[in-house]
Amino acid sequence: MGGGTEVLQNLNPRLFVKCVDRAVTEDDWNENVTDEFDSREVFDLIRHINDPEHPLTLEELNVVDVNRITVDNEKNKIDILYTPTIPHCSLATLIGLTIKVQLLRNIPPRFKIQVKITPGTHVSEAAINKQMADKERVSAAMENIDLIQTINKSLIEVENHYK
Amino acid sequence: MTDSSSFAEKLIEGEDILSLTNEAAEGIIKSKLAFPDVLTSLEPFLTSVDVVQRSNGIFFLADVLQQLPADFLNADEVDVVSEFFIKKLAEHFSITPHVLKGLSYIVGMENFPDSQVLNLLGNLQCNVTVQTLTQASRLHYYEILQNLLLSKETVLKSKQNDFVYAIITGMDSEGDPRNLMFLYQLIPEAYSKFPLEHLAEEAFSVLECYFPIDFTPKGDGGITRDGLARGLENCFVSSTEFGPFVFPMILEKLESTLKVAQVDSLKLLIKGFEIWNIKDINPHTSDLWKAFKLTLLQAGDSELVDLALNALTSLLRRYSSSALSAHESATLDQLLQYVTDNTHRFLSDPTLTLFLPSIKVLNGVARSSRFCCEYVVKTVVPQLLALAENKKGHDAVLSALSPILSSCIHYNLWNSKETQQILSSVPTSLITLMKDSNSQNGCFLCLKETVSILDVETRNNLYSGVLSFLSTNDPLPEDSYSTFIITLANTHPEEVKQAVLNCISISDTETGITKKKKLRTFCWCCNVPSLTSFSSDKILHFISIPRCSSEAVDCLKDFVVKEPSSDILRNLGTQCNMIQRLHEFCLSSADSSANHVLNNSSYVSISTTIEVLMRHLTAEDQRITCANCLLLYAMGSAGEQVPPIQIVLLKGLLLPLRKDVQLNNRCMIVRVLLQTALNSDDPLCQNSSAVLLSSLVNKCLDDNALRDILTSIETEIDNGLKGENPIESIALLSWIVKSLILRSHVLASVWLKRLISLLAHPTVSMNAANGFKIILADSAELSSVNFCSERLLFKQWVFQWIFDDQLAALFNSDDENSKKAAALAITYVVIAVPTSLVVSQISKLIRVFVLCFDSNNFEVIAATLEVLSSLLSTGEKAFEEYIDTFIPRFLSCTSYSNMIVRMNALDCIYYYGKFQETRLIPYKNKVVQELLKALDDPKRLVRQKAARARSRWFLVGTADDR
């Protein structure tokens, strides 16, 4: 378990249906059409991240949802809201950080990425949002070997879901 | 006897007696030596005061006994020898191993006297400490016990405790796997024949210390951990007297975090529940359920979950099939209560993680016995039905109910007073729920189980329900509906025919979905023997109606390709005459005067259907069908182009012909095919002709006829290359080469050289290179399914032939284009063969790959990258050396103008990221940095590959165990 907890905080979480893989259209193979970034593309990058507590993905637990991602190609901005499975989940920061790391690695640097907790879904929402928005703290976290290894463990499965 | 005396002399002369054992044994068997005389000759050794001499004497005797047949010595001789050996047990410790060896053979002899059995047993216990012996001697000790058990069971019964005790003391602290394997066969046999009584606990403790077995096999000794574990398991279940001791041990091991401990414990329980007494099991049921519950309901390892469920089922089955006291009966009730109490709370909502695991447990319980099934029906079925009705769309609920209903049918609960009331409402509820599109899959699963118990009224409602389902635009749950309709039609064929199939019609306004549902229903009903003819007639009828013909053709094709048994297909081909009727329909509808003309893809589907049906006919049926159908074709007049449809159909008809089916008009067919393969404007027609020609070449049994065919093909190809059809000629040539290689024909290499020479052709060199793709690709058309000869490892043959003989020839041209064509050809060969073969030629290949990267043709680069990515995906270590060569080239390809090249290059970079980290670390920063550009690629598909590659390279150098 990522958080190092011995007892599961949420033994029987609710499961959600996974969305089908994005269909490849003719335009996708057309070199002359430029594909803009959209919320589905960002969602595909983070949906298969493993929950640190369960052998389930963030999508299956509805922690992330395509409708809670907004992408603005003009202003180079990506906003993501994620929902912890329970309001007092101590792993919420870790999950947020994992999402952020995955996006920092795989989204072009021209985008400003904001990862926040869905309003009203966590008791320490404000504190966590502040942590996630603090560049210095995120960078420091990414240099912490133990933490980055925990994050890498959650991310390692993601590559198996690429087509 | 001269021989006896000369043998005695040899012994006395002081020759090395151990070298004489074979001579002595052979002499005794051939009656040249008398056994008593040999004994007499040995006397100086056996009675010597020198321990070594005595030891040699006994060793000699034991070795001789080993070589004598079991029935050779008479009763007196065996008696004397056994008496002697038993006395020698009290001898010097260095002699004991030889004595045990001798005894193990004597006890196995037919004439071993009963009178010596107890004497031997007593002496073994008094004089032998097994733990001080070597492995071989311990094995002899166990062999003595086994031989006694096999032949002297009655005598042993008089002192049964002594025998059991001999086993217990003998095996205590045995550690050699070979001896343990022997013991694990001896013990179950011994303990099942001899009561353990007061020795039970001791017998158990010497076994307990091995559980669970921990063993890593060395070499090829044939002993595995699993073999030892199953052996030990058999020991524990060999006696009911182990019951009181075994449960504390198992419960302790079930708590272990070691998977092997849990697996072995559960497997032991599954076997043991059938053996151990209920009175011993009874005090532990509550603890056992607690242990099972942890495994079953905490989404763990699927192997453990299955074993725990099996163990629970086995426990319930034992209780249900045994006569129980009031107390034990209450325990069973209590156990079932535990199960329902612990699963009940997870059944309230099918979206909860533990809903399915809970249902799995309840299914297991229902399966275990009639009593348990009744219990589950009473406590769970009403809840599930209510859940399905209230939360419509929760297909999981109905899918969960289906196996429980299956158990109800199995235990005939529909007629049981206890459950009848609950179950009687189920079919009606299911028929009502069928209207809800999100519940249909589950409904069909459940209805399939209940088909056999439905009364007439319910069946009529069901038929109406099915008809209205077929008329709605709800999606078709293929798997569940097909098994349901096939089961229903098998159970009530006449009713289904009258009430469902006869009532189906397709109107002009129907949507694609309803058409498909209706047509598929007919197709699936073809599986029911009594409905095959009726249903196939209906399908052909719908094919002939313009508004649904293409859907009907597709449904029929899908059905014959993946569904039925060969009997059904044969029936469709012969009795239903489907092949000829499809031909008649197509060849008449293709005529401009007919009502409607199908599109090309429908003709291809019909051709595929014909192909599958033909494949399942016998040679004689194929010959008759073929002769009848060929009459319908208009291929007579020379010079005239044959319509493409006819070629497509002809492919379906002739491709699956068996080798021994002779074609009367083969020459004419070859001429027509050759004509269309080279001159037709229709690519489908061209390809079909080329494939069919290559199939005829592959299957032609008469070599002279084959050479005639090849000569005419060669002439036409040469003309085509010089004339207007060089590309078509190369495609045909490639197919013929493939066909010849597959049948291992002597001309294969000659024709392949012809194709290789075209790699230097000024205009079509790249097409010639593409020909290699055709040759090396797996082709269903030229496979054994269609009765073609298929040379084993033909790809490896091509690879080896090219690399051994042709590589220099390929690159001797100065022309850059031909070099690149050759490189592309090799790339296609490489992609098709196993990595191990490629690695053997890796140094030669690197040159080819580098040459390909220098090409300005995107096709060449894309193909090279594809080959490399497939080779790199295997993680073959040989590529580690070439990381310097490849990584910079891959990185530069990530900004190539063609997106396929970019994607393939990113795949290669990703696979390299899985190689040994020490090799990768110097490149990590460069790769991660360069891939930033690819993350912002204009194409999303490329960005996805870039993200995968970059994520992988970020993990380089961060592994825990680096």
UniProtKB/TrEMBL annotation, chain A:
Name of a matching Pfam family: FeS_assembly_P
Family stated for the protein in its record: Belongs to the MIP18 family.
Name of the protein this chain belongs to: MIP18 family-like domain-containing protein
A cellular-component GO term for this protein: cytosolic [4Fe-4S] assembly targeting complex
Phosphoprotein among keywords: no
Keyword entries, A-Z: Chromosome partition
Gene Ontology biological-process annotations: chromosome segregation; protein maturation
PANTHER family in UniProt: CYTOSOLIC IRON-SULFUR ASSEMBLY COMPONENT 2B (PTHR12377:SF0), CYTOSOLIC IRON-SULFUR ASSEMBLY COMPONENT 2B-RELATED (PTHR12377)
Domain MIP18 family-like: start-end pairs: 41-116
UniProtKB/TrEMBL annotation, chain B:
Ranges of residues in domain MMS19 C-terminal: 577-909
Pfam family, one: MMS19_N
Occurrences of domain MMS19 N-terminal (ranges): 40-297
Broad class of where this protein is predominantly found: cytoplasm
Keyword rRNA-binding annotated: no
GO CC annotations on file: cytosolic [4Fe-4S] assembly targeting complex; nucleus; spindle
Keywords on record: Cytoplasm, Cytoskeleton, DNA damage, DNA repair, Nucleus, Repeat
Domain of life: Eukaryota
Biological process, per Gene Ontology: DNA repair; iron-sulfur cluster assembly; protein maturation
Location relative to the cell: Cytoplasm, Cytoskeleton, Spindle; Nucleus
Family of this protein: Belongs to the MET18/MMS19 family.
PANTHER family xrefs: DNA REPAIR/TRANSCRIPTION PROTEIN MET18/MMS19, MMS19 NUCLEOTIDE EXCISION REPAIR PROTEIN HOMOLOG
Binding partners and assembly: Component of the CIA complex.
Function: Key component of the cytosolic iron-sulfur protein assembly (CIA) complex, a multiprotein complex that mediates the incorporation of iron-sulfur cluster into apoproteins specifically involved in DNA metabolism and genomic integrity. In the CIA complex, MMS19 acts as an adapter between early-acting CIA components and a subset of cellular target iron-sulfur proteins.
Annotated protein name in UniProt: MMS19 nucleotide excision repair protein
UniProt organism field: Apolygus lucorum (Small green plant bug)
